[in-house]
Design goal:
Layout (H helix, E strand, L loop, with lengths): L1 H10 L2 H8 L6 H36 L2 H22 L8 H26 L6 H11 L1 H8 L7 H23 L3 H37 L9 H18 L3 E8 L2 H8 L1 H18 L5 E6 L2 E7 L3 H14 L12 E7 L8 H17 L4 E3 L4 E3 L6 E2 L2
Parallel strand pairs: 4-5
Antiparallel strand pairs: 1-3, 1-4, 2-3, 5-6, 6-7
Helix pairs in contact: 3-4, 3-5, 3-9, 4-5, 5-8, 7-9, 8-9, 11-12
Length: 389
């Protein structure tokens, strides 16, 4: 058992465990994929329950008196219409608040049906098939709670949805049957167990999704973001920077003389050089920054909320420390070009990356192992900033 616990703790590192509890620290690509999964499952659940809700009407007709099954049938028809509306809803921007609102609406439909059924059947002496049908209505909160387990929710979101379900089930039972402590305790006990299983199921599938996305979004050689996932992150941060009128910097990095490493020392040495460069960049940056492998020996650095003063600090730190030693004993350096959204008046993120790329080529022409900023300013190791030659 201790070995198993140690393994689980090792896998659920502090950051990963925090991501299972709250969505605050989720990366943009994880948020997007998670919301897409929630929306697709809302559609599936809504379509399935619209059919099941409609098929339940004949059961009510066969087992319940007319005065009871008619209001229930009307409520069921309204529920079917609501479910179909959710299943056929048009594509819109999937913000977290909107998606969670859609999920809340999906859960509210069967809970409303549960409340109506308890009101319609309250005080009725039921037996046989009618009693069985009534017990099925009483099980709706359990079904709703169990159904939540198919959604990849963090624990905070899970409790946000589960606690109102427990409150509704308790309030309706007290209103319908009075203060029956034994029945109330047994209901809450079963709902509590279902809540524990549901939260565990959500955590397991969310952890699995995080692991798959981490593997798919990371370059297997360097551990940096892949170009595809990096573009998503850059696009999101650029839009946020525009909305908040905040600075955003992009650094385009090309490892100097990389081809000579492959030619003289082999591809294994080249791969090791790229790993060391990515590791060095990650250590030199903040947690909010991102390292993206753009292609081959090229990397792009995303520096949110970083103006030109911050860019000078970051680039100065990089050129002073660089990336370690080359296989031939020299220093592993790079040519760097930097662009900043406000200072360069970039209209979109691709323009910003293109401008940083152009300045990277200017750094190569300036002798490599340096960084070129806006206005032709060059930053070199252990030297003051000088105009580009």
């Amino acid at each position: 058992m201790p070995v198993l616990l140690q393994t689980m703790i090792a896998r659920l590192q502090a950051g990963r465990l925090a991501d299972l509890l709250s969505a605050r620290g989720h990366a943009p690509y994880l948020t997007r994929h998670r919301l897409e999964a929630v929306v697709s499952r809302i559609r599936l659940v809504a379509l399935t329950f619209s059919v099941l809700t409609l098929l339940w009407i004949p059961l009510d007709m066969a087992t319940l008196p007319r005065a009871q099954w008619i209001p229930l049938a009307l409520c069921r028809l309204a529920a079917v219409a609501a479910f179909l509306g959710l299943a056929l809803m048009k594509e819109r921007e999937r913000s977290r608040s909107r998606v969670l609102g859609l999920l809340a609406a999906t859960l509210a439909i069967p809970l409303t049906l549960f409340c109506v059924a308890q009101w319609a059947l309250a005080g009725m002496p039921l037996s046989g098939l009618a009693a069985i049908n009534a017990s099925l209505y009483e099980a709706l909160p359990f079904i709703v709670l169990a159904g939540l387990a198919i959604f990849p929710l963090v624990a905070a979101e899970g409790l946000l949805f589960a606690l109102p379900i427990l409150a509704v089930a308790t309030a309706v039972q007290l209103a319908a049957a009075g203060l029956d402590l034994v029945r109330l305790f047994s209901t809450l006990w079963v709902l509590g167990l279902a809540l524990g299983v549901y939260l565990l199921a959500c955590a397991i599938q969310l952890h699995y999704m995080m692991a798959l996305l981490h593997r798919a979004s990371r370059d297997p050689l360097t551990g940096a973001l892949t170009r595809r996932s990096g573009v998503e992150v850059v696009d999101l941060h650029f839009r946020l920077a525009c909305e908040q009128n905040a600075p955003l910097a992009i650094a385009f990095i090309d490892v100097d003389n990389f081809k000579s490493i492959n030619d003289s020392c082999g591809h294994e040495a080249g791969d090791q050089a790229l790993r060391e460069a990515a590791a060095a960049l990650t250590q030199l940056l903040r947690l909010a920054d991102a390292v993206i492998r753009w292609g081959g020996e090229e990397f792009v650095l995303l520096l949110p909320n970083t103006g030109m003063d911050g860019v000078r600090i970051v680039c100065g730190r990089i050129v002073e420390q660089w990336f370690g030693a080359r296989p031939d004993g020299g220093t592993l350096t790079a040519s760097i070009g930097v662009a900043e959204r406000i200072g360069d008046q970039a209209g979109d993120w691709s323009q910003l990356v293109k401008l940083a790329d152009e300045r990277m080529y200017a750094a190569k022409k300036a002798g490599k192992a340096c960084c070129v900023l806006g206005g032709g300013t060059v930053i070199r190791a252990s030297a003051a900033e000088t105009p580009a030659g």
